[in-house]
Amino acid sequence: MFEPKVFDNTDYESRLAYNHELMTLVASEFIKEATVLLEMLQAYMMDEDWDDFALVAHRLKGAALEVSGYRFCQLITEMEGLAIQGKGDQLPIRYTALREAFEALALALKQEILR
Question: Residues 33-82: pLDDT tens digits?
Fold first, then answer.
């Protein structure tokens, strides 16, 4: 099975028209916003609030695509689908993987963009 990249710098540069100032701003804001949204996901998961979980997951999916974080995006897309289907019992294990993918993406952004 094809494993998506943690971070695709070539795609990111193209997506933001090689504007390195904008790339830095977007990467920095993604890390801040995603940190808060991940905490919200965890709270909704604990409350078994699958509708709000799916809404926040959708926001995270868009944010991850904006920074070309394809592995994170793949995981959050799967989790959004499970929440919509009401299969919340399958989310905790995936949440751990999502946190790991976020940490890997944040590290890649810091090394490649925010250096």
Answer: 999 999 999 999 999 999 999 999 999 999 999 999 999 999 999 999 99
In this prediction, residue 1 has a pLDDT band, given cuts at 50, 70 and 90, of low
Of 105, 111, 112, nearest in space to 30 by CA: 105
Give, in degrees to the nearest 5, the angle at Cα 1 between 109 and 39.
40
Q: How far apart are CA 8 and CA 3, in angstroms?
A: 13
Q: What would the two tokens of residue 39 be?
A: 């905490």
**Do the beta carbons of residue 4 and residue 70 sit within 8 Å?**
yes
CA-to-CA separations, 26 to 17, 30, 56, in angstroms, rounded: 13, 6, 19
pTM of the model: 0.94
Q: Buried (b) or exposed (e) across 41-70, using 16+ Cβ within 10 A?
A: bbebbeeeebeebbebbebbbebbbbbbbb
Q: How many Cα atoms occupy the beta-carbon half-sphere of 103 within 13 Å?
A: 6
Structure tokens of 8?
A: 């695709």
